[in-house]
From TrEMBL:
Similarity comment: family membership: Belongs to the UPF0749 family.
Sequence segments annotated as region (Disordered): 1-39, 108-138
Matching Gene3D superfamilies: Protein of unknown function DUF881
Domain of life: Bacteria
Protein name (database record): DUF881 domain-containing protein
One Pfam family from the record: DUF881
Biased composition (Basic and acidic residues): 8-17, 108-122
Biased composition (Low complexity): 19-37
Annotated coiled-coil segments of the chain: none
Signal peptide bounds: none
Length: 278
């Protein structure tokens, strides 16, 4: 062993670990924090809208709005169909329909004035009891005509339906009755059977029954009312006459200054209803 190895400082250096250079630790890489991702305004809007989060109140409002929109669409479609039907009608047909509406309005106005006149007479009459009895008797006659318990006469029309093919059914005659009532008919008789508020028509062995009374073609209507209203109501485009003619039936309508409706109905007493007047 050499003398240099035996020196104390050399022996101490050999026993200590090797020194780490200071530059090595300083140069070690330091992990940098990753920057936070940037969210744009559009991305925040999309995140807020999807997935949708609807409350119960919002769902109810949406259903109501859908129903309202559907109803408006149906109404617009219905009005469009009515407008197209009138748009295709002839000028004289439109004038006739307008005149019929004016006549109905006038009838309602006349009825209103008549009721007002009766009220004024009751209020101003010196003998209100006698006036009331007179009006009651007159009202009884009017109700008797409507109920078919008394005969009636006055201006009106006659309508004859000749059904040689046997194609006319009860619902077609019922449409004629309803159209006449809407035009102001006050008394109607079909082949000797009085038509009243409760009248019903049914098909019966290639013929028609009115309130259980079988009638055969030709069907003859005797109607009391204003002829200027009754006849146009039957001849409107797509009305009673055109419908019957499509079934190969022959329809004849005539006006008359005097129509007699003499078929009567027995007065029926109600089983349960009683007058509430005292």
């Amino acid at each position: 062993m050499s003398n240099e190895d035996e020196q104390p400082e050399n022996r101490l250096r050999r026993e200590l670990p090797e020194e780490v250079p200071a530059s090595a630790s300083a140069e070690a890489p330091v992990a940098e924090e990753a920057p936070a991702p940037t969210v744009t305004g559009r991305q925040r809007l999309v995140q807020g809208l999807w997935p949708p989060r609807a409350s119960r109140a919002q769902l109810i409002v949406a259903v109501l709005l859908f129903g309202l929109g559907f109803g408006l669409a149906v109404q617009v479609a219905s009005n469009s169909n009515s407008d197209s039907a009138l748009r295709g009608a002839r000028q004289e047909d439109l004038v006739r329909i307008l005149d019929e509406l004016d006549d109905r309005t006038q009838r309602l106005e006349d009825e209103k004035q008549g009721l007002q006149k009766q009220r004024d007479e009751l209020e101003n009459s010196s003998d209100q009891a006698e006036e009331a009895r007179k009006q009651t008797a007159e009202k009884e006659k009017q109700l008797g005509i409507l109920a078919g318990t008394v005969a009636a006469q006055g201006p009106g029309i006659t309508m004859t339906i000749d059904d040689t093919k046997g194609t006319v059914e009860a619902d077609m005659l019922l449409d004629a009755v309803q159209e006449l009532r809407a035009a102001g008919a006050e008394a109607i008789q079909v082949n000797g059977v009085r038509v009243v508020a409760g009248t019903y028509l049914t098909d019966s062995d290639k013929s028609v029954s009115v309130d259980g009374n079988k009638i055969n073609a030709p069907y003859r209507f005797k109607v009391i009312g204003k002829p200027q209203d009754l006849e146009p109501a039957l001849n409107i485009p797509g009305g009673v006459v055109q419908t019957l003619e499509k079934e190969q039936a022959t329809v004849t309508v005539g006006r008359s200054s005097k129509i007699v409706v003499d078929a009567l109905r027995a007065a029926k007493q109600p089983d349960y209803a009683r007058s509430s007047s005292r």
